[in-house]
Amino acid sequence: MKAKTREAVTGYTFLLPFLTFFIAFFLLPTCFSLWLSFYKYRGYGEPRFVGWGNFQKLLYYDKFWMAVGNTFFYLFAHWIPAILLSFILALAIHECAKNVQRIYKPIIFLPQIVATVASALVFRVIFATNSGVFSQLLGKQIPFLSDPGLMKWTVVLLMTWKATGWFFVIFLSGLTIVSKDVIEAATIDGASYFQRLFHIVIPLMRKIFMFTFLMETMTTLKVFVEPNMLISGGMAAPPAAKPIVSILVDNVNNGYFGLASASGWILFVFIFMLTMVQYYLFNRPEMKEKRKGGVVR
User: Fold this and answer.
1) How far is CA 227 from each of CA 71, 148, 223, 263, rounded to the nearest angstrom?
2) What count of other Cβ atoms lies within 10 Å of the Cβ of residue 257?
3) Is residue 14 classed as helix, strand or coil in its secondary structure?
4) Tell me, what's the pLDDT at 254?
5) Phi, psi values for residue 48, rounded to 5°
6) Model confidence over 191-234: pLDDT tens digits?
């Protein structure tokens, strides 16, 4: 056996466990769910082909679009404050001494390692209408978890609290790629702190921002535990706060596996489209610079 062939066989042998699990638990279920989305199937009997019927039924279902609106509200309402707060904290901690960083970094990151269910239950105690912390402190009952206008903002607070620690660690790591020599040179040239921030630090961290936006988009569009556990204590959240994944879970629980698969693939399309839009927006300036130079890599 030739050396190159032997090396290839050795490499694929080490990859075999991963490939086996990938095919068995991801690729085959994905293909099966795509096939199932075109059928009406209750888990028993013969599947009945309905074509695009499952997708049409979801697209004409008003509660589905309400769930889509709720999910995008969760995305954009917590996205901006979480990123701003975490970036400001990262800038502040980055300027501190190493001893101070050792104290504050684990404290800020702590919400990220707390289980989502536990966090939702704690927030449920804090924002409960009758016996909640805020209701007791203010001396009146505030329907944080029952009023349609307030319940979604309560979920946003929970998601912001959870996401800030995650973004903080990423931004803090990203600040290490900014060369101190460049910052010192800009300071000597008379650049102010905000000029250095907006013209040097943030442009150099563009890829870091793109990574955080993409990851948080994919995570938030699949949100399920926060609204259901916080608002209804693990039961189904009301339609005013229900996310897209709840539509999928409800169809699975009711035995409508074709509709569940179709809703999952619609969610995949939303994630894919938003990911492509963000990727294009973040790479557009870079592509223009390359074209100006006459080279497109």
Assistant:
1) 10, 12, 8, 18
2) 20
3) helix
4) 85
5) -110, 125
6) 888 888 888 888 888 888 888 888 888 888 989 888 988 887 76
Residue listed under structure tokens 């800020």: 108
H helices of the chain, in order, are 3-22, 28-36, 53-59, 62-94, 98-113, 116-126, 133-138, 148-174, 180-188, 193-196, 202-204, 206-221, 225-232, 244-253, 257-292
* Residue 290 covered by a domain: no
Q: Which domain holds residue 62?
A: 53-284
> What is the average per-residue pLDDT within 94-100?
79
* DSSP β-bridge partners for residue 140: none
Query: Do residues 82 and 157 touch, judged by C-beta distance below 8 A?
Result: no
- CA dist 148 and 242 (Å) reads 11
Alpha-carbon distances of 184 from 54, 97, 98, rounded to whole Å = 60, 18, 20
236 falls within a domain: yes
How crowded is the C-beta side of 163, counted as CA atoms within 13 Å? 28
Residue 212: name the closest of 255, 174, 253 by CA.
174
In a domain, 98, yes or no: yes
Give me the number of domains the chain comprises.
1
Residue 227 lies in a domain: yes
Beta carbons of 38 and 51 less than 8 angstroms apart: yes
Q: How far apart are CA 193 and CA 168, in angstroms?
A: 20
Torsion of the alpha carbons at 97, 103, 104 and 106, rounded to the nearest 10: 130
Residues 6 or more apart whose CB falls under 8 angstroms from that of 43 comprise 255, 257
pLDDT digits (tens, 9 = 90+) for 56-67: 999 998 889 999
Q: 49 pairs with which residues across the strands?
A: 39
